[in-house]
Amino acid sequence: MQENERRSRFAEEARSERPDLALLCLLIGAEADPSLDEAGMDAAQIELDRLAGMLPYGLRGPQAWAAALGDLLGGREGFHGTPGDYQHLESSLLHQVLRRRRGLPILLSVVWTEVARRAGGHVYGVALPGHFVVGFGDPDEQVLADPFAAGRVLSDADTELLVTSTTGTSPTPSMLTPADPLTVVSRMLNNIRAWAALRPEQSAVALWALDLLLLLPSHPARLRFERAQLLVQRGDFVTGAAEMDAYAEVVDAVEPTAAETIRGQARAARARLN
Fold it and tell me: What's the predicted TM-score (pTM) here?
């Protein structure tokens, strides 16, 4: 699949009425791993189907679903995470997580929710600050589990510790609501950007992650300026300067001083061609 075709498909899926989370994750994987072709993406979807078929029939209630998924995915199939997984880009790519049985919390949560969805379960991602988990059932009976810890069911105290260790405050009801697919994809791409930011030699990864974020229906306008800065850092002074000027036009209506600063950066980028 060519880059233009892949990105067009990503944008179309992201703007669909019901975005397919697994497909969006696999298209992200194809950006990182050009060897992931249509057959490879189909194989990943088939593996999710296979895992769903291994769940017991007739599960009832959030506790039963949490126990069954933990037993299957965290137990028999060995899906889990370790601190070392944060060092590897593969931990953010769904097809690699399915192969390695290892990944970041958010990717493992995608596996949990996609397997459960195929089996008819009411299971969803929960975007706690700093740590993604999965939720089972409605708010009044909600059960949370941590796929990174092989599906360990979280007590109220466990959840509070996860949140307070990141924010210093207790969990709020808004933190425990289901995360929609585009929220998951955006957070996933931002994780990839953060990984690449610590590795200057991986600026190409940061660039495609930004490009995909800009294809989402809603994104911060400042991402366009960040992309322009990244292009300049990578030596594409002409394109980066042009994108800075375009962003300055947008900013000018509300912050003319900031817009002039951005235009100055564009002029400096062009000067580096001399």
Answer: 0.91
